[in-house]
Amino acid sequence: CEDCGKSLIGECKLHGPLIRAKDRVIPSRARLTLPHYLTLRVLELRAGNQQILGVFAKKVIQKRTQFGPYVGQLSTKLTRYDESRLVLQVLKDGGKYFLDTPNEDCGNWMMFVRLARNQEEQTLVAYQHCGEVYFTTVKPIEPHTELKVWYAADYAKFMEASAVFIKEESDVCSLPPVAKEPVDPWICSSCRSSFATFALLESHQCIHKDRV
Predict the structure, then answer these.
(1) Is the pTM of this model over 0.85?
(2) Which domain holds residue 117?
């Protein structure tokens, strides 16, 4: 105790316990890799404070936008299985391995993307390229829309899965409504003009460069 100058086992009976300062909690590796125009939302809270998360767009994302590669540990078996996420495998050195993400410090934000239950809600397609897995948008994604993925046709054959995933209505769990967040505009770094979509910002920048 710094007040009475004694070395004690436990708390000082005269001056009481020490004031404990806690370290700041930092996000996991997976959460830190989330692009700025995407956001994580809690869709459900299960027993043991387990959060069911979804990835949502904050701004318009154009069709044919590629994300990746998916970051995970190569493994001969899965240590973490979630029925709402895709099981992913890759071909490396002639062997077939799982892309395993046992915790958030071993992967990137793509581990939070949930699988699409049908073609209507599918916004991403998963495929393998040069031993890595990428997700690419199959249509424009509007703000407040959840990113959901299913296998590309060739990758579905590799994964021995159907090319289209359709879940029976009786098995579909209804999700609670999600409060919408304000949409952030795309802002030009040169003249600070704001635009509703990234495509409009790109075209504006081209005109701006021509003027310069």
Answers:
(1) no
(2) 29-159
